[in-house]
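One such given next:
>
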Amino acid sequence: MLKSFSFNSVLITLFVLFYSINVHSQVAYEHIQSTKIYDFLDEMASMQIIELNSTIKPYSRTFIAEQLIIAQSKKEELNNRQQKELELHLEEYAIENKEYYSKSKYSIFNKNSSFDNSINPLSINYYDSNFRATIRPIAGRTYDIRDDKEYRYHNRIGANFVGYIGNNLSIYASLRDNYQKNDIYSQPNFLTLYEGGSHKVNNGGRLGADYSEMRGGITYAWIWGNIGLVKDHLEWGDNNHGSNILSGRTPSFASVKLNLKPAKWFELNYFHGWLVSMEIDSSRSYTSSTGVKRKVFSDKYIAANMFTIRPFKNFSFSFGNSIVYSDKGIQAAYLIPVMFFKSIDHTLTRGVENENSQMFFNLSSRNIKNIHLYASFFIDEFSKTRIGDPKRTNFISYKAGLKTSNFLVENISLTAEYTHTKPMTFKHRVPSTTFETNRYNLGNYLVDNAEEIYLALNYKPHYKVGITASFTQILKGNDYPYLVGTNLPKVDEFEFLRDIIWNKQHLSIEVNYQILNTVKLEIGVSKSIIKTKDADNQSAQYYLNKFTSAFEQGNHFIFRTGLNIGF
């Protein structure tokens, strides 16, 4: 029995090595809202089954398939629930892995056709020697019902498409039309993790808001890297409750992305993005011959890089920087992936107003089996003269956390995370160069002058079922404006949490059931206690309205239920 087991393990390992050497890692990105697969890969990495650079998301679908194959080669190290969940994911990513792709028994197409349809996952597929593709529906509704019988719901409808051409080229697209009944879940000022959007309020007389989210891209990949033109959500920085580098909760924006992995110990990620300033450029705005006033936004761009170094197994150190710039057109120097952008800015804007630059760092350790330790730092403005000065502060945000997976008890994970953001971090004095797109902060969802504690317990009694209980404590301090002048307070002397203008305690229990690979049923209940305070000549009600959606005001129990196809 032992000899047979060993021989089979060797065969599987050789297959994985052969596959890894010959695979062309084509790149079509899996959205960051596909939390089930991201959580599973994180669990595998914490068990030291796979190695993962979780600092940079989203992952490509082919990369996910490769990691699943590695986990399959070590299947004997997984418990029963993990093995069954692994099989579920292998089915989901079969189009990326020919060894697991097979035609459905219930196909509506001719058996000799390259077309196929699948029930699990719900899809129509095409597969030949040069082109592989899948199209999958997005549909669903999620209800929130308060204890006073008021309700809201979120409708989604659309489709996902992924296509692979030859061995190197990939295309993907996703369109979701959203309607939020009786409420707007996320506005730029709201302190929430809900995805932002460009809303049409009460469109056509319907109470609520409509918005459309179109993502997609075209990429070219080779064995140790890829480049692409994409419009997608980006998340940088390890986290389990909102990143403090790039959160991914803004409307998606277009970017040129580059990823290089020339060695196992080194990785470079870079993008140059086109942001939406929503600041009117009066010099380019005009009145047409038909009398129409044509308003034009100021151009706004972002360039960012992240270098990841792995000095030893299961440990990574990442560092990088970014710059938000406007009004000058695309600068060639910011298209160079390895640059320190602040230094370039000093050359380009000498004697005039500088652009808005940032630095960031991330540490990730899975050296203790079943435990992930992580920390990230976002530096907006920094001066060594402020260190040790009790009256002054640097503009920084930091996050530290840990997540255990199957530590001591199988199928249970614990998460603890702390976030601390100093006043004025993420803010800027020039509106056209703020760290924002569509007025949504690119960084942490709480913006500046805030502190958060997040605790969560997750239990997976079955490979299709997840139960999560969580507690969140948020303190939001004074909403200081970024103004400069001789008669104004110095922006680096604002006190951290002087007045707690918005205080939230949130407790929730959620149950998710994966009916099919892309079909999810969810139920849950939550209770939020939100307190606000008069401060800085503004009322407590003003801060409640500014930071909280109308539906979430009032300290109610909220019951949630939803059925969704796709994410």
About this structure: The longest helix spans residues 2-22. The longest strand covers residues 131-146. The CA atoms of residues 377 and 398 lie 4 Å apart. Confidence is low (pLDDT under 50) at residues 1-23.
